[in-house]
């Protein structure tokens, strides 16, 4: 993992006391010189742009270090401006938070997905945590060769877990990850999060612009740009479990799904109306756990102490606490353990929410 570079000490530049005060005409001359210098710099910048991207007035923004290519070498990089896209930034932050949560016990903190993951160390620890296995690799490798060897072992293990084979895949490779290719690292992390049903909600339909730069035999650079899909639309955010009626409803009978939702809304409102509460939207109104806690008290006829849950939760952790507490109440009264994680409910996974509510419906549907 990267550590911030120490800043070199700088000696402050103090004004010379013996400098005489500039006259009015001196200042006029200085302004003229500065203007001419600025004009020269602008012309030089335009000339460099024309040389670097001949015939292309809308060339993509490419960092200078990416120009270092061998003849006929091709390299794909993300357009730097895409990293400022709010949805891309959200996706990166969600993935970083997930990694840090998974590795918190090992006191590993990721701040930058490219700088902290390129050498394979964090990826090794993450895969070991997710699979509950141990990889046969050196713990610490400082040399580039050692890092590449570790990445080879780690990525082969990742591919076996995801695809059942250790063969290379198109979306990531040892070269792309070690060269800190953000697109490859994002693809890798999203695939892991999806496979292990991470308790997170990934921003959907996130795309980035990828620039493929190629250097030909005459030392000229050419480029092409295409749009890469990083995430898509998901309807299976919850934890993995055996297929049930809700999977069939989502896959094959969306019309019947609406009937089920309407029945559940009628059921919960029948009881929540006793405390002047009403549910209009199952998709969103149970995600903070408040209605679940109150509903359990109403169904079982006991008062739920307000100090046991957050009546107005302010953040993700407080919402997870509420849902976890509601799950505990359900099991305390003899209900089966919910086929969902608290995080799934908080992350607005509709299928998980419906499973929990239907579990209540089957037990209390005949209750007055």
From TrEMBL:
One of its GO terms (biological process) is actin cytoskeleton organization. InterPro entries: CH_dom (IPR001715), CH_dom_sf (IPR036872), Parvin (IPR028433). Residues 89-197, 258-365 form the Calponin-homology (CH) domain. Keywords: Actin-binding, Cell adhesion, Cytoplasm, Cytoskeleton, Repeat. Its main location: cytoplasm. Residues 1-22, 45-66 are annotated as: Disordered. Coiled coil: none annotated. CDD domains: CH_PARVA_B_rpt1, CH_PARVA_B_rpt2. GO terms for cellular component: actin cytoskeleton; focal adhesion; sarcomere. It holds the Pfam family CH. Belongs to the parvin family. PANTHER family: GH23568P, PARVIN. This is Calponin-homology (CH) domain-containing protein.
